[in-house]
Amino acid sequence: MNHKSANLAIISNNTFEATKAVNLDNYDISSALQTTLEFNELIAIFSSKIAHKIPHSAFIYTNTEFALEVKSGVFTRHSCNYALKVEQQQLGELKLMRNHRFSDGDLQLLETLLCCLIYPLKNATLFHQALKMAYTDPLTQTHNRASFNDTIKREMSLATRNVKNLSLIFFDIDHFKTINDTYGHDCGDITLALGAKWIKESLRDSDIIFRYGGEEFVILLSDTDANGAGLLAERIRTSIENHTIAYGMETIKITASLGVSTLRANDTIESFILRADKAMYAAKNKGRNQVVLAK
């Protein structure tokens, strides 16, 4: 059985107030869900708290806005799906699974219990939307410098703890000032936005791109050694070289210089970044439009 509901919607405060009396015995669930704004924690708490009322062996939660999939448990053939929504705001989709059918009574109870989850999910959505805006460069739609500062700390800690490789690519558009001076800042902005787009097209899902400042971007590569980072940097360089920008009646060819560093045991954040930055400037000093691996 696969029971689908297009929307579970609490569309007004009146509707929400009307559900409160029904949910007085679910105070423990609601209280627990107020303790976090992380999607994965919310779904795990909800699953755990309802398990004695609606036994299930697994859950899958997806949220396309944040490219998120959270799943846990033993996946079986019977499931029920709910697209979660409140006041026209999409909150993701939740699927519960188990090895026997969900009865109509189970589904009615689940829909009541989901009322406890809706507003915590909305709060989490608003929080992560604000965080995304604060950490996004509006021109290039890449992560910004503040995001980089937070992310590199986390990734270096994870790489050290798990004995994994971590690499960094510094990317700078060649002769960017000349483009600005010759064609104007609008053309410069277009160049930056397109450059970021072409970089993204070369990246893997696990790679993260940041606008570091001006025409400079940084790409953080988890679980990637120097050889792998060098190959990716060369792929990005080639992609940039093979594109042409059409601006007014002009066509503009751009190139980029890239520097690569890989995390060492004694690295600080500053030394890790500095090696990549120096390698990038070495690429420029050698004639631009090339990749240099830090020694």
TrEMBL record:
<dbReference type="GO" id="GO:1902201">
    <property type="term" value="P:negative regulation of bacterial-type flagellum-dependent cell motility"/>
</dbReference>
<dbReference type="InterPro" id="IPR050469">
    <property type="entry name" value="Diguanylate_Cyclase"/>
</dbReference>
<dbReference type="InterPro" id="IPR029787">
    <property type="entry name" value="Nucleotide_cyclase"/>
</dbReference>
<dbReference type="GO" id="GO:0043709">
    <property type="term" value="P:cell adhesion involved in single-species biofilm formation"/>
</dbReference>
<dbReference type="InterPro" id="IPR043128">
    <property type="entry name" value="Rev_trsase/Diguanyl_cyclase"/>
</dbReference>
<dbReference type="GO" id="GO:0005886">
    <property type="term" value="C:plasma membrane"/>
</dbReference>
<feature type="domain" description="GGDEF">
    <location>
        <begin position="164"/>
        <end position="295"/>
    </location>
</feature>
<dbReference type="GO" id="GO:0052621">
    <property type="term" value="F:diguanylate cyclase activity"/>
</dbReference>
<dbReference type="Pfam" id="PF00990">
    <property type="entry name" value="GGDEF"/>
</dbReference>
<protein>
    <recommendedName>
        <fullName>diguanylate cyclase</fullName>
        <ecNumber>2.7.7.65</ecNumber>
    </recommendedName>
</protein>
<dbReference type="InterPro" id="IPR000160">
    <property type="entry name" value="GGDEF_dom"/>
</dbReference>
